[in-house]
Amino acid sequence: MIIKQNLWLQILIGMALGALLGFGLSSNGLALVPQSTALTTGSWLAILGAVFLGLIGMVIIPLIIASIILGINASRDIGFVKRIGLRLVLYFLATSFIAILIGIGYTEIIKPGAMTNIQTASVAIDVSANAAPTLPMRIKNLIPANPLKAAVDIDLIKVVIFSIFIGFAVLTLPSKLMSGFMDFTNAIQSISLKIIEWAMMIAPLAVFGLIADMVIKLGVDAFIGLGWYVFCVLAGLLTIIAMYLLIVTFIAKRNPIEFLSNIRAVQLLAFSTSSSAATMPFTMQAAEERLNIPPAISRFVVPLGATINMDGTGMYQAVAAVFLCQFFGIELTFVETLLLAFTCVGASIGTPSTPGIGIVVLAAVVADLGVPAAGIGMILGVDRILDMCRTTVNVTGDLTACTVMDRWMNKKTIGTSLI
């Protein structure tokens, strides 16, 4: 049992205490201690968070590979896997595009860039090495010529594609021939989950340290000048959550209140870690044990969703891009806005599920719009907290997709036990 009883409450208490301590120590808060002492204290408090994330990061690659292979082979039906794969990709693309249009809509109506009056900060961000590749380049780079390098680089989308190929290959071979390999894969998954179970023993303390360190470093000043921008992002994220609840209610035919209650611990973990990849094991467990999703669906949907289902990230990038254009007086035509929406969909797909990477991807997105590099520095101060919020939405989207796929696929044909 990875997710402990009342873990959501323990995490919530850890977040609240961490925020209070951070506010008390921060130079922008109560400033109970000198700034140097506060920063040092924050660094020490964050150690448990680093250990927690490190333990999960240590096993995330073998867990993804094992889970996808086992998930594909759970039903022993290649037709089922093909059907769910096609429907899932189309579903992800549709929800991502809608989410981005929601963000652009809020930003065009409220126009936060026109109401913001702060000085820009010059921040050096190397965009050249991280520039958003073109669509043909993305397609060519999907196949991992060197799976080991993809694993070392934590290039999750390539790891997922490699795992899908292995899973399909195993599915087409006789079960008797593959029994030893499947036992080994099962063992790898079990070992990974045991290490994650150990990590969960310090999860509330890790959250306490991470939140305290963040508040000490950021304070509250960063939010004052960018209040309307933050409002647009949060309003967009809440609207996406509302969209998910409508999908759960009318498409998945589930009670939305029960759905939120069953996933609250995972949402809090996603919020505190800012990483949908780190949260992935708990997302799968919540899907199977709390939402009663068959492993054949959850172990295929969740790892794939953690790499390409980034509705919160895509929406944030769209809001930030339009905001910066408004701030610097760059007028976007309807066609340019529509192209921006498609660009954000593409940029969000395959974005590494790690904290802070969104700001680098955003730098690549806005570079083509003529936004000065200093503009990125202007919103950098609030990126961390918004990163936490959009990660929560991303994980909620993965679990919503699980319920939809569970509804769409014929449950009678889904195997619930692994080989």
Account of the protein in words:
The protein is mainly α. 74% of the residues lie in helices and 0% in strands. It has 19 helices and no strands. It has helices spanning 7-25, 35-45, 47-73, 78-110, 135-140, 147-152, 156-172, 175-200, 203-218, 221-224, 227-250, 256-273, 276-290, 295-308, 311-327, 334-348, 357-367, 374-380, 383-408. Helix 1 crosses helix 12 (256-273), helix 11 (227-250) runs antiparallel to helix 15 and helix 15 runs antiparallel to helix 16 (334-348). The longest helix is centred in the N-terminal third of the chain and has 33 residues, at 78-110. The protein is globular. The relative contact order is 0.19. Residues 412-419 have low confidence and may be disordered.
Helical coverage, percent range: over 70%
Helix-strand sequence: HHHHHHHHHHHHHHHHHHH
From the helix content, strand content and strand pairing, which structural class follows? Answer: mainly alpha
The averaged pLDDT comes out at 84
Query: Which consecutive residue ranges, at least 5 long each, have pLDDT under 50?
Result: 412-419
Backbone shape: globular
Distance between the termini: 21 Å
Number of strands: 0
Largest sheet: none
Rg computed from alpha carbons, rounded to a whole number of angstroms: 21 Å
Number of helices: 19
How are the elements arranged and paired?
Blueprint (H helix, E strand, L loop, with lengths): L6 H19 L9 H11 L1 H27 L4 H33 L24 H6 L6 H6 L3 H17 L2 H26 L2 H16 L2 H4 L2 H24 L5 H18 L2 H15 L4 H14 L2 H17 L6 H15 L8 H11 L6 H7 L2 H26 L11
